[in-house]
Amino acid sequence: METAFGDLSAWQAMLDRHAELFSEMSAGSRVGFVSRAGSGITPGKHAAGLMAAPGAGDMMAWEHQGAGMHTRLESYAGFQDARVDLLFVAEDDALATLRESLNGEALALIKRLIRKGGIMFYVMKNKYQLQDAGYEEFLESLGLAFLGACR
Question: What's the pTM?
Fold first, then answer.
């Protein structure tokens, strides 16, 4: 299925190649990707803007269904209705770069794009909820050490 995120089967193949990163996650764990344009976030209002942003468009959701992570397309109407644990908001050029790298090291690219500001990263659950849901290895692979050594 072709979307703004490209061919979802290519994303699924990437998730399948990295299945070990998601193996400790609980069923129902969800990660979302939206384009910044579809997020409704006004440039310069990143954190505060997310809460009030009237999103419109598509969200690519990764959901752990007990036997691994699966991707699908959902409609995105804003932050409050996203029902995800983590939300990645990507600039259009970052999404294009990701689509081109799905056969390679897309997760390493996500890490670089977060550091360069091409992807904004929002945590919707607290540290302990994420730990209990098994996110630690995935987040560490992205260089997101907010779970830290102090537990």
Answer: 0.87
